[in-house]
Design a protein that fits this description.
The complex is a heterodimer of chains A (about 775) and B (about 140).
Chain A: H1 2-18, H2 27-43, E1 53-60, E2 65-71, H3 73-96, H4 103-122, H5 126-144, H6 151-182, H7 187-191, H8 194-199, H9 203-217, H10 226-229, H11 235-244, H12 249-261, H13 265-286, H14 292-313, H15 316-347, H16 363-377, H17 385-398, H18 405-433, H19 451-469, H20 475-486, H21 504-521, H22 523-526, H23 529-532, H24 539-561, H25 566-587, H26 603-621, H27 625-645, H28 649-669, H29 683-709, H30 717-728, H31 733-741, H32 743-765
Antiparallel strand pairs in A: 1-2
Helix pairs in contact in A: 1-2, 1-4, 2-3, 2-4, 3-4, 3-11, 3-15, 3-19, 3-20, 4-5, 5-6, 6-9, 9-12, 9-13, 11-15, 12-14, 13-14, 13-18, 14-15, 14-18, 15-16, 15-17, 15-19, 15-20, 16-18, 16-19, 17-18, 17-19, 17-21, 18-21, 25-29, 26-27, 27-28, 30-31, 31-32
Chain B: H1 7-30, H2 38-56, H3 58-64, H4 69-89, E1 99-104, E2 108-113, H5 114-138
Classes of the chains: A mainly alpha (about 775), B mainly alpha (about 140).
Amino acid sequence: MIFAVLIPLIIACFIPLLSKLKDKIHTGIFVFFVPFLIFLYFVQFLGEDFQPIRHTYNWIPSLGINFDFYLDGLSLLFALLISGIGALVVLYSIFYLSKQERLGSFYVYLLMFMTAMLGVVLSDNIFVLYTFWELTSISSFLLIGYWHFKERSRYGALKSMLITIFGGLSMFGGFILLWVVTGTTSIQEMINQVDIILNSSYLPLILAFVLLGAFTKSAQFPFHIWLPDAMEAPTPVSAYLHSATMVKAGLFLIARFSPIFSGSEWFFIVVSLVGIITLCWGSYMAVRQTDLKAILAFSTISQLGMIMAMLGFGTTAAVFAAIFHILNHATFKGSLFMVAGIIDHETGTRDIRKLGGLITFLPITATLALFGTFSMAGVPLPFLNGFYSKELFFDATLHLENTTFLAEVIPYLAVFGSIFTFVYSMYFFFGVFTGPKQLDKLPKKPHEAPIGMLLSPIVLVAGVILIGLFPNIVNAPFLLHAAQAVNPDVEFHKVYFWHGIDSPALHMSLIVVAIGIILFVTRKKWSKVYTILPGKLSLNKVYDQIVEKLDVISGAITRSYMTGSLKNYMSIILATTLIVSFVFMFITNGFTLEYDYLADVTILEVSVVIIMIIAAVATIFTNHNIAAILVLGVVGYGVAILFVVYRAPDIALTQFVIETVTVALFLLCFYHLPKMRKTTDSAGTKMTNMLISVGFGALMTMVAISAHSSNWFESISDYFVETSYKLGGGHNIVNVILVDMRGLDTLFEIAVLGIAALAIIGLIKLKKDKGAQ
Amino acid sequence: MYKPNDLVLRTTTSLIAFILLGFAIYLLLAGHNSPGGGFVGGLLTSGAILLMYMAYGMEVVKKIIPINFTLLIPIGLAFAVGTGIGSFIFNVPFLSQTFGYFHLPIFGEIELATAMIFDIGVYFTVVGVMMTIILTIANDQ
């Protein structure tokens, strides 16, 4: 099975080579066999006695992350959709994309997507599933931005990327929590641990995170906004990714996890509510669109909402209807996208206001569109598959197991959404193919598409009719297994066209058709409602604002502290140290004061320290360079005297000499130093600076006192005193420590000195740019 | 051009500089047993040379002491590292020091420590660094 998943990726490696031949052979012809063979591979599993299959290939066994491929009814349904429609889309793209396009990139992305999608539906391991999930996001991003020279393409690609990756990451968070709770990475094993998950305190988080992933991917309200913008992709991509496969990944996720989550009350409420809102909003907005692909995009959103709602209901009838509709939607929506692509290809525009009366020019396309749109609308005719699933949907809304307020409202919302579905379907068909001809507005003179381009929609429409005529043909060998994977209680039941005149679902269908026709005919009169709702309200604006404001605000925040002023950075560093240290000292009660270890104070020490304090304070207030340098020197010599007092002759010597050298150097550089000026800081800044410096001084004092007061360990100096002569051969303990016991420190200190000298040479002698001061 | 009459300075310098140099060498050699060592010795040496520079001027001192002070830095570092690496010959860890007593003609009984070689490295480095820094900055005008 691993080959079925990875073969597209393997073939993708050879596509750049094959695309060199594109002048002779269209690259798509090579590609066509890949999904076709995969389709044939998966077809062999069809049958009434289907049993789930599991194959495991090690990847990271120590973390329990392996390629666990698990083929049950649900995976099989999706795998067949992906490979079957994939083959048709590749066939269609051979005639749709001209040889001047970058065919190599297109098919590489498409094959990458195919692998990713097959991986998503076949993975049993949550982390592998997540890996493939993100690969679908990335390849979708690449495909939407395929015509990257178009501004709208880039915008759409970025938008879909941000939204789906946002969802993908939150889903990853949910997966990690699931893994923490159950200790396994396998979905099937998680299903066996339903009780543990449902009783876990993480359940609300898991549910929210995983649902967020599914909703963003499947373009549910309010995350649907990326899908209409994704229509900038080439039409084969829209047909494949954004109607039949990728947007159904979210549905797959919900279906896959519903044996786990359906035990939770919230699953029903959230998924049904989001689904039904998406259904209504999508279909309502679709009527407003003027671009053919935008109509189809909102239609996809609405239909996905419908399936989502049915998965939320969770009853056996609803689950079966959802699975049935996934199949039906893939057939008619795929064909409609291809029809839209043909119209675009043959007339040069997708704007429905410019199109009209095309039935005489494109008779075959019109016929295909007729079946597609009427099936989408759920018109009660016995050869349209859309009708069956729609009626099952109505039936499901009337038989909810839940008895909350929501259950009362759902049937009405379902009818409302379906009415608009009917209106936009009719609008799509009659707006394009009937009415006045407007040839002068079309960029090209329309004519029928080549047979190759028509082949794929014909196959899909054949599917529509076949399922419509024999609705039970795929049930037993195919859909039943899929539905049972979602809800094991689903039993085989036949689908009938006619349920009797008193069937409530039929009444709902008739109401939809009746009101739909009235609304469609009077469309121009009531279309003003769109200026009230949504009016100026637009989720796109919200998204744009979020993206823009994030940019602006983060820029403002960064600029507020990244001022480029070293003084400010210093203040921030010191203030942070100050606050953290004081808070830490306060929390841990760290300040201690002990008088036991203190020595007596002599007059000499006191007088030296007083002189140093006076000099230090004077440094702050002096306004003259030389004075500041000399006064600083006083502090240095004071320190040297203190070393003498404390009997450290080596250090005192060094301090004397170094202080002298430093003062001399300061005087040498004095010429180059900037003149000291009176600060122009405001009183507030001065106050803050003072607070920080005084606070820092206080902090250091407290730390020093505390450190001195807490003698936790024996000093090691006794060892040095004892062994200085015995081991080091010297009586000068300081020197023995420096050159013998800790010679390594000294070695690197002289290295530091050397580097400093070289740096000064570099600074002064190697000035290349004399102008840069 | 104005030329200051610094006869007193020069005469005292010729005396003081040698005393300083001698004291510096003493500090270096005596460091192991009494206050002093390579660091202070180096600083004082460079102080003495600096005094000569101030009294006699750049050109004259360059002729008297024809040393490239910057070269002293790597030489000093080589001494220091060399004592460290030398430990390996005797199969002991890096920078192991030892000492012993030897009877030499003229000096008599004397203590010699390998740490002294290390200290000489410090001494050279410090002289090199100090002279390099001061001469570089002073010449920059």
